[in-house]
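User: I'm new to structure prediction. If I give you an amino acid sequence, what do you actually give back? Let's try with this one:
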Amino acid sequence: MELKSKNNYYTPYQYKKVPEKLFVKNDPDYRTVKNLLSGKKYAVVSYGGMEETYCCGQYNTPDTESRLTDGVLAERATFEDPAWVRFSRGVARSIVFDIGGIASVSEFCIRLLKEKATAVRLPNNVSFDVSENGVDFETVALLDDLHSDREAEVVIARAKLEPAVRARFVRVTFCCPVHVYIDQIEAIGKKDITDARAVVPDLPGDSVYPGKYCGAEQLGGAKDVLLAYFCHEERPPLEVEHFLPYVGYLNKEGKAIDTLFDGYLFLPFVAFLYDKHKKRPLDKSKWQYYMDQQFLDGKNLDALELAAEQVQKDLGLPELKLKVFFSILYPVVEQRSFGEIGGKNLDFTVQEDRITALKWLVNEQEQRFNAKAYKHLELAGYYWFTEEIDYSDKQLLELIRVTTDHVRGKGMITTWIPYYLASGYNDWRRLGFDMACYQPNYAFRQDIPEQRLFDAAETAKLLGMCIELEVGGTQRWNVGHTRNYYAAGAVTGYMKEAAHMYYQEGMPGSYYRAYHSEDPVLNSMYHDTYRFIKGTYPADGFDEEEQDVKE
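Assistant: Good question. You get back a string of structure tokens that encode the predicted 3D arrangement of the chain. For your 551 residues, that looks like this:
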């Protein structure tokens, strides 16, 4: 794995393969167990970019000071103690150490600060990777249960390795969306490698920081999934004609000349679930209404099936299968009288009742889907609807774990789509989701620079996520922003390497209007989307007018 940073605050670091180097057996400390990193210099790699404001010693201690290995410990649990090495903003950091020769590492130790009043937080996890040659790394320890109930505390975390592992290079990686303070990092071991095992390099996806986009194989076999918002009490259901320009790439006459989107996530409009920013405490009748709308005869899901049949016929294909994903609605704790399931009126202040409702929702959608016996649709998984993790809901982590286990037990996956820097976005694996798709949130404002697309891409690749492509509307600048999503994908690799999910407001949607538009600029968005999906959108295809405005 090679993770690169575009941030110039730290000294640039390049992973390079080095020849094997062993320590001399007659060294006086050859068998002495000690901190192998003591006094060593190190490199800091930053991911996702840092704002210029934070590129200074006040927020990020320069890597040239080598203070993480100087043996100086903080005496107080406050950010004011001068021993703390500061890391602020950006997405994550990797600290890379060179021991100088292959040694035997048996334990890691890291000392961190938690100070609630100053937003100095413990990272969600700390990953320890080792390498014998500087390029091929193995994750040998992961601390993902760092916790302190105190307002301020020095937290000492250790990870013991049994057996010890051979290592010349040590890489410590952690996310830091706010402030992470560390005074020392230690790798305990000895120069004698007699009893240490060799490094077994990670396979793609093995690490919590894989440095590889989530692909179709993790998204239930779908590469390009359209978010099909459909459930709205004031809008009519979707017809076959609404799906045809999505299932097939249509010519002017409305005949498919190629396929287009291969996956469809059915989900209700946000207004159905939220009152402004607050979740609505819906009862069973509302959950039932959502499912009834989904399975209306000849509409919505049925319409997608009929559209697939028409596209298959136009193209003369022997088979056309589309992946389908359904939504998991949130059991809002204020709902004290949800309705009866299994003869009991559920109360969402009771955790077991919330779990019962979620399992019922998953099972009911699966059963109704199977009863339809579709020829062209395959149920691949479920979507956890909320875009952030409300850690104040003490029962939430268990809810997600139980639900994802339930879905996984059916041979399907659970997806999640957090917004840019949403609470929990970097914690998606520990939360239990099978994959996560990252929102750049570039599409909705003209003052957000294109760098956001590159930062989001770097973050998604670091964390093993895929990318959401977003359309904010059908004005000229919206079309330009869409082109920039596609061009950034060609430059960074997420066009071909990653799976994608596509947001474009409610169905029939912006792509539908673009296909039918007589305006050549708006119409071009439909054809650009086809080129992106087929992996042929050019790396120099950024919107010229957008570039002119920026310059």
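You can read the tokens as a compact description of the fold. Here is one thing that stands out. Residues 1-5, 547-551 have pLDDT under 50 and may be disordered.
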